[in-house]
Amino acid sequence: MRRHRKRHESTPLSLALLANQRYLNRCKLHLLRKKEFLVSEITIPKIGLILGTNRPRRIGGTIAEWTQNHLTSPAFETELIDLEKVGLPFLDEPDIPAHGHYTQAHTQVWSATIQQYAGFVLLFPQYNWGYPAVLKNALDYLYAEWAHKPGGDHCLRQPRRHAGPIGDALRDQRAAHDPAGGESGIDHE
């Protein structure tokens, strides 16, 4: 007799996180076979919620808290990355980010911060049909750190168009509906 698993509704983000969890399980088995690391060193993946606004009278903090409270799962944990608090100056590295030769302390800290996450959700307002400069600057600071990590937002079309390879590296894993449960009505190219 065949057993049938109960199907549940899945979003692209939950499917990406499930695939990431399966990958981590395979890594765990590999490490156990090699006996080079302790199992306790393997942790559940962290998803960074990047708040991409720094305007004085912003409401993004409230939206980010709501998102963090509603984006819960035993398969991952979330942490808020507030770009206003990160405080990166406009890109001031002498070499291009693709080379990975970071000389500024703030870039090295930003790189270490981003490397610890398995994926990202970008939370930002739309300013004049675009995304905020503070978010573009934060994305432009790094290159390899963004590669092969799922990233989701509600309108990645413009960041992908303008960020080039960095936008392509952040794979779009957005849901087909808005948080209130209705259809978003947004054209997702």
Automatic annotation (TrEMBL):
Q: Which InterPro entries match?
A: Flavoprotein-like_sf, FMN_Rdtase-like_dom, NAD(P)H-dep_reductase
Q: Which Pfam family, any one, appears in the UniProt record?
A: FMN_red
Q: Where are the transmembrane segments?
A: none
Q: Which domain of life is it from?
A: Bacteria
Protein name per its UniProtKB record = NAD(P)H-dependent oxidoreductase
Q: Start and end of every NADPH-dependent FMN reductase-like domain?
A: 45-152
Organism, by scientific name, is: Schleiferilactobacillus harbinensis
